[in-house]
Amino acid sequence: MASRDHKPAYLKYYGERSTVLTEKSTDDDVRRVYDEWAGEYDKDLNSAGYACPKPMVEFLDNAIHEVFQGKIAKGDIRIMDAGAGTGLVGIELHKHDYSNVDALDISQEMLNEAKKTNVYSKIHLRPL
């Protein structure tokens, strides 16, 4: 099976950020990259055609409906959006009437962006 080299696409949409982190990167290195990227993150993902939050939340919503069969209100379900970033998943959860969602991330700057969405009950910074 042929492998696909994703590096050119990553460079096109994410610039040098995509080459900074390696398997030897520390949590602090990761935090620093995302802190610096926070202001442009959504724009960069949109230009790259990133659409993962919508189908992921639709899948979760369907699974919750199938398991609970409407016996639990969506507002009573507590969700932790781990790796919340700028809040893209939180926005989709809010569109599906989930109102008890917390954000957790390693980057304070990403969480500052997520807070602007007004869809999270609580915002948690993961300490390094």
From TrEMBL:
<keyword id="KW-0489">Methyltransferase</keyword>
<protein>
    <submittedName>
        <fullName>Methyltransferase domain</fullName>
    </submittedName>
</protein>
<keyword id="KW-0808">Transferase</keyword>
<dbReference type="InterPro" id="IPR029063">
    <property type="entry name" value="SAM-dependent_MTases_sf"/>
</dbReference>
<dbReference type="GO" id="GO:0032259">
    <property type="term" value="P:methylation"/>
</dbReference>
<dbReference type="InterPro" id="IPR041698">
    <property type="entry name" value="Methyltransf_25"/>
</dbReference>
<dbReference type="Pfam" id="PF13649">
    <property type="entry name" value="Methyltransf_25"/>
</dbReference>
<dbReference type="GO" id="GO:0008168">
    <property type="term" value="F:methyltransferase activity"/>
</dbReference>
<feature type="domain" description="Methyltransferase">
    <location>
        <begin position="79"/>
        <end position="119"/>
    </location>
</feature>
